[in-house]
Design brief:
Elements: E1 8-13, H1 20-33, E2 38-42, H2 48-58, H3 67-91, E3 95-99, H4 102-108, H5 117-127, E4 134-139, H6 142-151, H7 164-180, E5 185-189, H8 194-209
Parallel strand pairs: 1-3, 1-4, 2-3, 4-5
Helix pairs in contact: 1-8, 2-3, 3-5, 4-5, 6-7
Bound molecules: adenosine-5'-diphosphate (ADP) and thymidine-5'-diphosphate.
The site of adenosine-5'-diphosphate has 14 residues, from helix 1, helix 6 and helix 8.
Length: 210
């Protein structure tokens, strides 16, 4: 088919330190080099309003917000990101690559402090209602992920300070999500060199975007 390329919506998910940001950037560079118009974005954040909410949720005391309040804040940030950044880019035929999306809320808020997955899903269908076309789940040994994440530690440490036990549950949770949504999720072994992982991801993206 000739004419403008269709837009595509790609997310990266995985535990902290698994290499999502590195690989999202690599895929964006790769697709740009092949002539695609790419918007590289992230959550929480990706629009001015959502970046303001990012500071509220990621900085400060780990007990600052309840899980329920976090669900509302992350979903509010996502709604603004969708309205201001994601939908306009897809409508213009661009590829949107986001570092985290709703799967992160399904896990971090959905299972860590009680079973709130049903609440996350209800609010998602009410306020967001879209899923990525393709989700890369970057899989990584939790201890190694935590080592990597702590090595570049900054002000955004609310979640990282929850420690390794949480990382273990998150890793299992991401693998379970991949099994729950097999049509859009692809698990990628993140414990290899940046180049090897990037080549793997580029090959999957090429097949899916074709
Ligand atoms: P995430 O976004 O999942 O938290 P990052 O992409 O920020 O992960 O990577 C976390 C740290 O690990 C960074 O310092 C990054 O340079 C490093 N890193 C990323 N991918 C690899 C890899 N394949 N091998 C070794 N180190 C990596
Ligand atoms: P991120 O900046 O991607 O951190 P990292 O690079 O360490 O993976 O995300 C920041 C934190 O926000 C991360 O610990 C996961 C958390 N988070 C949630 O708890 N819920 C969400 O819906 C999202 C998008 C992120």
């Amino acid at each position: 088919m000739s004419g403008a390329a269709r837009g595509a919506f790609i997310s990266f998910e995985g535990i902290d330190g698994s290499g999502k940001s590195t690989q999202a950037r690599r895929l964006a560079d790769h697709l740009r080099a092949s002539g695609r118009d790419v918007v590289l974005t992230r959550e929480p954040g990706g629009s001015p309003g959502a970046e303001d909410i990012r500071r509220l949720v990621l900085e400060g005391d780990p007990d600052r917000w309840s899980a329920e309040t976090e669900i509302l804040l992350f979903t509010a940030a996502r709604r603004d990101h969708l309205e201001k950044t994601i939908r306009p880019a897809l409508a213009a035929g661009k590829v949107v690559i986001t570092d985290r999306f709703a799967d992160s809320t399904r896990l971090y808020q959905g299972i860590t402090r009680g079973d709130l997955r049903g609440v996350v899903d209800r609010l998602h269908s009410l306020m967001i209602g879209v899923e990525p076309d393709l989700t890369f789940i970057v899989d990584m040994d939790p201890a190694e992920g935590l080592r990597r994440a702590l090595a570049r530690r900054g002000a955004e440490e609310r979640f990282e300070s929850f420690g390794e036990a949480l990382q273990v549950r998150m890793r299992d949770g991401f693998l379970a999500l991949a099994a729950e949504f097999p049509a859009r999720c692809v698990v990628i072994d993140g414990a290899r060199s940046v180049e090897t992982v990037a080549a793997d991801i580029a090959a999957v993206a090429a097949r899916r975007l074709a």
